[in-house]
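Example for tutorial group B:
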């Protein structure tokens, strides 16, 4: 497994898109933090927690794209056969990609949080003194980016097409969940992506369970194709 992780880390870090996507997620949060930091009529709101929301969702989408690329580019460039020859076990391939992408998702989340705070300070705003709401927001962002990255790995492996996988993730997170909440009256807290963004149960559990099932399905289909 150590060799599989090393192989996947070399692959991920050698892709320019990995770092551009993570940086873009951080830059979006910096701009949002700056915008809220410049506001002087926030009332009971605070600039830091307000800087997340839709922007954090877009950042998570960019992190998911990093995960999609783990399999999508392999299929696009026909290099999956080489990966199979090196790592052999489909389960090892999926596990290594999930672990490395999860780590990159955590890095992306930390970058988003740090640059959001930097944006607020650059705009003359003040960071929250307590760890209550701010800590909850940070936890939600980190969990959202990690799970989004893992979901991206699964979608990339199952759909075998980078644009299609990113499109499915974007439509679900930005359109389908809102539609379900508005028309079918499904509570936002029960929806995987929205519930995780709000850090409200059972959303994170649903997201984690769906991601685990999708990753298992990815390993199964990869083994079938290899056979």
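The residue assignment follows.
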């Amino acid at each position: 497994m150590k060799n599989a992780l090393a192989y996947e880390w070399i692959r991920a870090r050698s892709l320019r898109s990995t770092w551009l996507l993570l940086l873009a997620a951080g830059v979006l949060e910096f701009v949002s933090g700056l915008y809220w930091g410049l506001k002087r009529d926030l009332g009971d709101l605070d600039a830091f927690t307000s800087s997340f929301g839709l922007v954090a969702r877009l950042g998570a989408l960019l992190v998911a794209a990093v995960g999609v690329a783990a399999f999508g580019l392999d299929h696009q460039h026909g290099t999956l056969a080489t990966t199979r020859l090196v790592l052999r076990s489909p389960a090892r391939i999926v596990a290594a990609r999930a672990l490395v992408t999860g780590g990159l998702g955590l890095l992306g989340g930390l970058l988003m949080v740090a640059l959001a705070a930097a944006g607020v300070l650059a705009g003359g705003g003040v960071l929250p003194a307590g760890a209550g709401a701010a800590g909850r927001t940070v936890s939600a962002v980190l969990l959202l980016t990690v799970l989004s990255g893992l979901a991206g790995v699964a979608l990339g492996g199952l759909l075998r097409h980078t644009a299609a996988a990113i499109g499915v993730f974007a439509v679900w997170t930005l359109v389908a969940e809102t539609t379900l909440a508005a028309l079918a009256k499904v509570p936002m807290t029960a929806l995987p992506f929205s519930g995780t963004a709000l850090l409200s149960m059972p959303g994170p559990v649903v997201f984690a369970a769906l991601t685990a099932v999708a990753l298992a399905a990815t390993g199964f289909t990869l083994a079938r194709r290899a056979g």
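The chain has a mean pLDDT of 88. Compare this with the pattern of hydrophobic and polar residues in the output above.
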